[in-house]
Specification:
Helix content is 79%, strand content 0%. It has 120 residues and is mainly α. 0% of the residues are buried.
């Protein structure tokens, strides 16, 4: 495929001076200053967001540890109460057994007294 270079014409339109934006040299400094300000603002926003995330993470960890400590204390109190209840039940059972033995002894003694009284 052979292209004849004499037949292809490419025209580039020329812009009038009215269409071209002329930026004075002083304006470039203002644009750079604005871009630097925007960079600082974006950097500040990023820092604030990162600090907020760190604060949230620390708060959640604190709540988790606090809940674990509360559960641990509550479990200790519960286990101490159940242990004391078991001890009280054991003591009550021993006292009940002692009372039964005492009642049996009293009944035996009353029977002996009655027998002695009946013999006379």
């Amino acid at each position: 495929m052979k292209i004849d270079s004499k037949k292809i014409n490419i025209e580039i339109p020329k812009a009038d001076e009215k269409e071209v934006v002329v930026i004075p040299s002083g304006e470039l400094g203002n644009i750079k200053k604005r871009l630097d300000d925007m960079k600082r603002i974006i950097f500040s926003i990023n820092i604030v967001v990162i600090l907020a995330m760190i604060a949230i993470i620390v708060s959640v960890i604190g709540l988790f540890l606090d809940q674990m400590r509360y559960n641990n204390v509550a479990y200790k109190e519960y286990s101490q109460k159940t242990e004391s209840v078991e001890i009280i039940q054991k003591i009550n059972q021993e006292l009940l057994d002692q009372n039964k033995q005492d009642q049996e002894l009293i009944i035996k003694q009353q029977n002996q007294i009655l027998e002695l009284l009946n013999k006379k």
